[in-house]
Amino acid sequence: MHKSFIPIRLREARKMCGYSLDQFVKAARTHITRQCIYNYERGVMQPKPDMVKLLLKHSV
Description:
The chain has helices spanning 5-16, 21-28, 34-42, 49-59. It is mostly helical. The longest helix has 12 residues, at 5-16. The protein starts with a helix and ends with a helix.
C-alpha cells in the first residue's frame, strides 16, 4: 500500500514549529478542528489541496 507523504510532512512541520495539536489549531485560526488535523496526520482523512496550503502556511 502506498502511504501519502502528507501525514508525515504535516506532522513534521507542526513539530518543527514546536506546536502541540491544540497549539497548532489556535495558531492556524481557521475553522479546522483538532480531530481533523489528528486524522490528517494519521492518514485517516486526506485534506483537499487548498487545506494543505492553509495548514502549511500556518506551520511555517
